[in-house]
Amino acid sequence: MHQSDQRKAKAEAINSMDLVYKNATKSVGLLSTPIYATTGAQLLGHLLNGDLSFEDDSGNLQIYHNVPDKTVVKTIRILKALVQDSWWDRAWIYQEEYLSGP
Q: Taking the chain, what is the end-to-end CA distance rounded to the nearest angstrom?
């Protein structure tokens, strides 16, 4: 494939991202930050599944009362590590999240 054809194909793919993400129920960015412990991956899974928190009537995030403080602290550490990943400096990750939203 010639370089001009590659550029055209890349531009077409980028311009069609709204079609890919508008029907998504969740958008997950696969970043380069490793999670070394199985428990960390499990906590992240619980968070993404809504097992640790819920949105109250005012739209605020609330932690379920039965979630131990130790679990909350570990989960916050994982989230902090993830959002410090250099990929969050890229605009496309926000675009994908926005396009997959309501």
A: 38
Domain count, the chain: 1
Confidence (pLDDT) at 23:
72
Residue 15 lies in a domain: yes
Largest CA distance in the chain: 59
Q: What is the mean pLDDT of residues 62-90?
A: 87
Q: CB within 8 A of 92, min separation 6: which ones?
A: 17
**CB neighbours of residue 92 within 10 Å:** 11
Range of the domain at 39: 3-97
pLDDT at 71: 94
102 inside domain: no
Residue 73 CB contacts under 8 Å (≥ 6 apart), including other chains: none
Quick one: tokens of 82? 């993830």
- pTM for the model stands at 0.56
Confidence at residue 1, expressed as pLDDT on a 0 to 100 scale: 64
